[in-house]
Amino acid sequence: MTLHQPAGFSVTAEAVDPHTIRLTLQGVLDFEAGDEFLEVVGDTLDAHAVEHGPVLRELHLNCAGLRLLDSSGLAALLTLRRRTHPAGVTLRLRHRPVQLTRMLALTGTAEYLTARADGTAEPVGPAGDFAGEAESTSS
After folding, report:
1. Helix, strand, or coil here: 43?
2. pLDDT band of 139, cuts 50, 70, 90
3. Among 8, 31, 62, 106, which residue's beta carbon has the most beta carbons within 10 A?
4. For residue 129, what pLDDT band results from cuts at 50, 70 and 90?
5. What digits encode the pLDDT tens for the residues 114-127?
6. Do residues 80 and 41 touch, judged by C-beta distance below 8 A?
């Protein structure tokens, strides 16, 4: 189900299981889309909590279709992390395009965004994906 479809950006949400939600990002996450992105994702998280209780542990963001992420888009991701991490939910930034990987490296936010909510460390591979995890194109 596509939850958000402004010009140039969309988010599709799928509950993989009670512990995992997958969000697929398409287009440009920028100043115009950031607030609505947070609202839609917040509504998705709230609905999941009502249905399943506080059991969500991972929020996978499939970034393969992300054409552009500006500083406002990064701020939206950081805001999302500030909401999810205290609730015990780890963000997983999957299939990062080169420009996203570069922005995270330049700003030093990659480790912060993807830190495990349970406090344990997880090795990150050179492409920014988690070492030891085989990723399919459907993640």
Report:
1. helix
2. very low
3. 62
4. low
5. 999 988 766 555 44
6. yes
Contact 43, 31 (CB under 8 A): no
The contacts of residue 109 (CB under 8 Å, 6+ apart) are: 74, 78
In the structure encoding, which two tokens stand for residue 106, read together? 């330049």
**What is the rounded CA–CA span in Å between residue 70 and residue 83?**
20
Chain-centre distance for alpha carbon 82: 12
Find how far residue 48's CA is from the centre of its chain.
Answer: 16
The predicted structure's pLDDT at residue 127: 47
Helices 71-84 and 98-107, axial angle in degrees (round to 10): 70
Which of 10, 23, 139, 6 has the alpha carbon at shortest distance from 80?
Answer: 23
Please tell me what DSSP assigns to residue 86.
G
80's tokens: 């999302």
Beta bridge partners, 21, equal 15, 59
